[in-house]
Amino acid sequence: MFLRKTIAVLASVAALSVGVAGTAQAAPRTLTYNSNAVTSAALKKAVDDGANVWNTQVANVRLVKTTGAANITVSQDSGWPRAYVAGLGRGRWVFGTQAVTDGHHVVRIAAHEFGHLLSLPDRRTGLCTDLMSGASAGTSCKNPIPSAKEKAEVEAAFSRLVTVGPSTFVDAA
């Protein structure tokens, strides 16, 4: 009996490794966000578009808008954008309009700030291809799409459910 079970397990592993049998994909982790405190209609749309960027770029996390209690809350003020991370997929971020006034792309700002709540730190590389380079990429950068490395980091964080400690990210030029 033991030998039969062992052979069955080994056959299953072999089938999966050569692609004979499909692998079950875990359902994405759903995170809710609430942007009720964003007063500008254009910025509310940018928040939704920023969430959609992540929804189309990673498979194991899904950002869903709600009007009630949420994992992530978004507000607006006249300062610089910033994120307050309470844990993986939890916290709040502020759509600081100073970056908008200075000419930074609104959807890039939103996707960048969501990136912090999804485990990514600021990386001031100056490269427009790096979403988490933020303002260092300059006002001509309109790219809201995370790089392959950034996508892989978010996928890895949510597949392992890494522990993300409280942190604050303030985006300034």
Plain-language structure description:
The protein is of the alpha/beta class and 173 residues long. The protein has helices at residues 2-18, 41-57, 97-101, 106-117, 148-160, and strands at residues 29-37, 61-65, 72-77, 82-87, 90-96, 167-170. Strands 2-1-3-5-4-6 form a 6-stranded mixed beta sheet. Helix 2 links the parallel strand 1 and strand 2. It starts with a helix and ends with a strand. 35% of the residues are buried.
Features:
single chain, alpha/beta, globular, 21% strand, 173 residues, 6 strands
Question: What is this structure, in a nutshell?
Answer:
The protein is 37% helix and 21% strand. With 173 residues, the protein is α/β, with parallel strands linked by helices.
Topology:
Blueprint: H1 2-18, E1 29-37, H2 41-57, E2 61-65, E3 72-77, E4 82-87, E5 90-96, H3 97-101, H4 106-117, H5 148-160, E6 167-170
Helicity level: 25-40%
The major beta sheet can be summarized as: 6 strands, mixed
Tell me the overall shape.
Answer: globular
> Number of helical runs?
5
